[in-house]
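Quick one: structure tokens for this chain, please?
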Amino acid sequence: MPRSLLRVDAVLVQAVIAGALSFAHLHDLAAAAGQDGWKAWAYPISVDLLLVAAWRRLRTDGPSRLAWCWFLTALVASLGANVATAGLLDLEDVPAWLRILVAAWPALAFMGGTLLAHSPAGHSPDPDFAPEVESEPVAVAAPDPEPVAAVDDASALPPADPAPPAVPVPAALVDHARKVAADHEERTGSRIDTDTLRARLGVPPHLADAIAAQLA
């Protein structure tokens, strides 16, 4: 059997053992705090699900105060149960404040899970993002000048303003903007406007207009 498979199996076995122990500690603490029957078994499931939901939000949408807040809340609840059932707490005489915390946990976990599931992800522009140097710039066509009414004396026409130069937009930045626009449309149901696109990408207004023209 390959050595890599043995290593993965060992990690999985360790994860199962640690999860089972933590699950049992949370159940014992909930039962000692007056949550008997199926309710005591529901507490460890609630804590673990909130921990996984917050970790998934951190992995998919990046660090945020919301995700870190609920991740640490679930982690403290899990670690607290492990420590409390290690002989430091008399499970036959659980203090009133701990009974209150255990009884309030379902409402707290429900609020945390709802916020993690339905709050929009706050994407901030990545300061380390830099377009690839090898990418060929995409030239944005300048708008056609407005037609000028014809006059008999051609010399009376004012000199036409030079057409604004095309703004080069790196292809990598256009691809990133498409992803941002798709995420915005998926969450809000409407196309992203230029001001929102400029704020999300952290680019100057003229570059945001050029990118918006590419996305149109």
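The chain has seven helices and no strands.
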